[in-house]
Amino acid sequence: MSKLLLAVAFAATLASIAEAQQVPRAAYSRPVLEGTVADLPVWKRITRGSYKSVNALRAALDAARVRIGDSADEILGRPAFLFSKIMVDADLVVVSVAELGFDDSTSLADIHRRAGELGLELCPAEVAPLLRLHYANQPTGEFLNVAMRPIPTYGGELIALSVANGGTGPLLLGGEGRPDLMINGRARFVFVRPARIALPNLPLNGGRAISE
Predict the structure, then answer these.
(1) Contact (CB, 8 A) for 173 and 69
(2) pLDDT digit string (tens) for 81-132?
């Protein structure tokens, strides 16, 4: 297949993913409004430090037939993309923007802030490609944003990573990571749930903590 046809196919895949964000949540996601962050079950456990260099990581992604978007591929090699020097587990949870308490679209900065108030943590950038490698059975049409500190490209554009399956196989994509970027309430994010929750029993039923 020519490069032009590949580019057209990739664009079609991205379009189908954009449409897929309108579908209901996958079965593994339950409304977190029922409890607290401490009640959230761990969705997946990722072991950081599995790969010590970008070359080793890219080789693993290639072997898994993962298609990598241009901006994602660029930031994988940036100095700000750090690899853990030791093996350490990261417990991941998935929540939607609405489940964090927002009624409508809101900024990426507010999403990160709210999650932090509830005791969730941003993912180290390394988590995104590791999740991509360990989520081989991702449903077709699913798109998950990895909540992370964005990494700038050589041109200065802030990029955050996502894992998706648009029907043509596993994808690792880079998208805008500007703090003021507005995100739809149906969008879902992957966060780290720390082993110990710093803010016990903070309710997940709105944008503000409720006073007792």
Answers:
(1) yes
(2) 999 999 999 999 999 999 999 988 999 999 999 999 999 999 999 999 999 9
Residue among 69, 80, 65 nearest 13 (CA): 69
- Sign of the CA dihedral 77, 78, 81, 87? positive
192: which strand partners?
92, 121
Torsion angles phi and psi, residue 99, rounded to 5? -70, -20
Residue type, 62: D
The kind and range of the H/E element at 130 are: helix 127-134
Enclosing H/E stretch for 118: helix 108-118
Q: How far apart are CA 32 and CA 151, in angstroms?
A: 29
| Single pTM value for the model | 0.78
For the chain, what percentages of helix, strand and coil (3-state, to nearest 5) are there? Answer: 30, 20, 50
